[in-house]
Amino acid sequence: MKTTKIIFWITTIAIFLFEGVMPISSLIFTPEYTYIGTRPLGYPDYFAVALIFFKLAGVLAILLPQVPARLKEWAYAGLTFNLVFAVISHVVVDGNIAYILMPIVVMAVLAGSYFSWHKIHAARNRQKEEGLYVRSMA
Description:
Shape: elongated
Order of helices and strands: HHHH
Strand content: under 5%
């Protein structure tokens, strides 16, 4: 269980940094780079800003322990959809292999976070049923 929690926290913090901190810091500190990933794909500027806020909301839902499990599931799904459509957009529009591989790598990290969270959540539910549950940070 300890290894699973370590995997969860490492992958979740990586997702938080990549999908939450980097986009919002770009919007705040270097707004001229906010649209650099979406304009070449043909998306309007407001789409990039909305995407940044939804990514931040998703990673916060995953990161915060008091968020209900169902909401966490939706956050994982939303981030996965975002990454799948990023791959599709880059394949169709520019075909740049680096731009195609990056969301795939992030999706693999997200999958690590998701599956480790599921293992922790299942173990916690078993402990609740047995009356042995003690609240932890995951």
